[in-house]
Write a structure and sequence with these properties.
The protein is an alpha/beta fold and about 200 residues long. The chain has helices at about 20-25, 40-45, 50-70, 95-105, 140-150, 180-185, 190-195, and strands spanning about 10-15, 30-35, 75-85, 90, 110-120, 125-135, 175.
Length: about 200
């Protein structure tokens, strides 16, 4: 047991995301990162016309369960997020041209990021939920988008919308309504509540 954490083994984060691991560490949760190997596109396609929230939760559940199956006895947290622009769901851009196109569409507009999370142990789903945030991107010129993509390298390809808000992506925005941790893809407050609910955290 460490601090608020009540289990002997650390939480397993079903992701290799450095920012999400950092969010957990800053909240005093011992955690280790393990890639899920889940085919995100396949899950998204199978979700069909589901809402952005439903897709985010489905992705989170798939990741948590995949890692849980490989790590018996361990508590696993899966996280993922989707982007909703006026009812249209965005996915991660497949290349820099796709990232440019996404940024052009988001420029000067407000979109919604939905971050889902799920907890699993021994192949059983214990909990899932989501939270959202609204982000307003400032009007961007074609030259600035080109500069951003040049400076950011491949980082935008790992984020829906073609940006990473925790890094150079902050230059793209004029307003954020919601918790930064939700923007990072880990809705911390509801995750902490869920962990308290199953006895993993002091309460």
């Amino acid at each position: 047991m460490i601090g608020f954490w009540r289990f002997h083994m650390p939480l397993v984060l079903a992701s290799t995301s450095a920012i999400r691991l950092r969010v957990l560490a800053e909240a005093g949760l011992p955690a280790e990162a393990v890639g899920s190997g889940v085919d995100e596109r396949a899950v998204e396609v199978s979700s069909g016309a589901a809402t952005p929230a439903a897709v985010a939760v489905s992705l989170s559940q798939a990741k948590a369960l995949a890692v849980s199956d490989r790590m018996p006895g361990r508590l696993v947290l899966g996280c993922d997020q989707t982007l909703d622009l006026d009812g249209e769901r965005f996915t991660k851009p497949v290349d820099r041209d796709a990232a440019r196109a996404q940024l052009e569409r988001l420029s000067g507009r407000t979109h919604r990021l939905v971050s889902g999370s799920a907890l699993a142990r021994d192949g059983l789903l214990l909990w899932s939920g989501f939270a959202d945030a609204r982000l307003t991107m400032r009007p961007l010129s074609a030259d600035f988008i080109a500069l951003y993509l040049q400076e950011a390298g491949d980082a935008p390809l790992s984020s829906v919308g073609g940006y990473q808000y925790e890094g150079l992506g902050a230059h793209l925005f004029e307003r954020v309504d919601g918790d930064d941790r939700t923007v990072f893809g880990l809705p911390l407050l509801i995750v902490l509540e869920a962990l308290r609910g199953i006895g993993a955290l002091a309460s």
